[in-house]
Backbone:
């Protein structure tokens, strides 16, 4: 069972909303290469508000993701794409339903 998660809220710079959406969509292959990332979602709430939600079996998997290629790529483009620094929240998973 997954035990740990991250919720990362992202606010796009004005005029960069579609670039941020494209960035999130393009990140999936990087996440696919992370065996410890059990679930990953890039989502959009409105024109400029996005988030990443991901879940892990253990703290080591969460730490590996935070130090992985997606985080590095996002931080490399944060000044260009984001109106504010990413808001990273650590969470404990209370229950889950994932594909077998």
Residues:
């Amino acid at each position: 069972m997954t035990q740990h998660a991250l919720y990362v809220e992202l606010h796009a710079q004005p005029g960069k909303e579609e670039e941020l959406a494209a960035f999130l969509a393009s990140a999936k292959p990087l996440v696919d290469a992370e065996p410890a990332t059990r679930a990953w979602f890039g989502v959009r709430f409105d024109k400029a508000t996005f988030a990443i939600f991901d879940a892990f079996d253990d703290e080591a998997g969460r730490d590996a993701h935070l130090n992985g290629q997606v985080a590095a790529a996002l931080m490399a483009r944060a000044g260009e794409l984001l109106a504010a620094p990413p808001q990273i929240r650590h969470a404990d998973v209370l229950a889950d339903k994932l594909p077998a």
In short: The beta strands are 4-11, 37-44, 49-56, 87-92. The longest helix spans residues 69-81.
